[in-house]
Amino acid sequence: QPGRVTAPQIRARKGGEPIVSLTSYHAHTARIIDPFVDFILVGDSLGMVMHGLETTIPVTLDMMILQGHAVMRGSSHALIVVDMPFGSYEESREQAFRNAARVMKETGCGAVKLEGGERMADTIRFLTERGVPVMGHVGLTPQSIMALGSFKAQGREEKDWGPIERDARAVADAGAFAIVLEAVAEPLGARITREVAVPTIGIGASPACDGQILVLEDMLGLSERVPKFVRKFGSLADHIREAVAAYAGEVRARSFPAPENTYAMKKG
Ligand code: KIV
Ligand code: NA
To answer: Which residues of the sequence carry a binding annotation for 3-methyl-2-oxobutanoate (predicted)?
Structure first.
């Protein structure tokens, strides 16, 4: 992917200027955000955002590949990171490699992301040693929702910090080029950022993280319900409602289409 940001370049930004990232699942949103971000995540949140699912559990590898390919086509600058969906990498490091290689071959993306800390360290090492750049994801890991019981912030009591810190360290030591920290207590996010040698990408974590990511539809004001860690930087749902109401009114009044939107007969 000539000219694109690379995983090693993201890795080298530890402690530097904040890394900016958003999700995208489509060519058109990828095209719009591409100049502003360092990497675009094709997140398995597409299950909820695009398909109205309750969780990311039902998301398949084929869904990720289809949208990953769309985002690659729409972008030319950002590193594209594609989420490995639930069930596509946990069974063995061989399964993880086979499926990650498929994602890279079929989308052309520059990295994959997978959830889990210490338990995924062997797999992350296996992949990174074989040419698959891996982004880690610790703290709240939505693919474990059925085991966790609910989506809630992690590490809000100091006694719970140990395992989360060990997860982040294990993922970094295994060779991940960056780590998403999702929904962790702010001081824990700052502490892990100080402790690990690779960039942390916060979502509901800390402004001290080496970068930040949000789900695009959430920050644009398109999603119906959003977690506390989202700031709405736009109100796209209102814009869409206004535009669609105007269109409906003009169709009903027969003022759309106007002459400039219709084809006249050829002269002669
Ligand atoms: O799927 C997703 O959108 C994510 C980000 C929220 C980090 O994993
Ligand atoms: Na995800």
So the answer is: 44-45, 83, 113
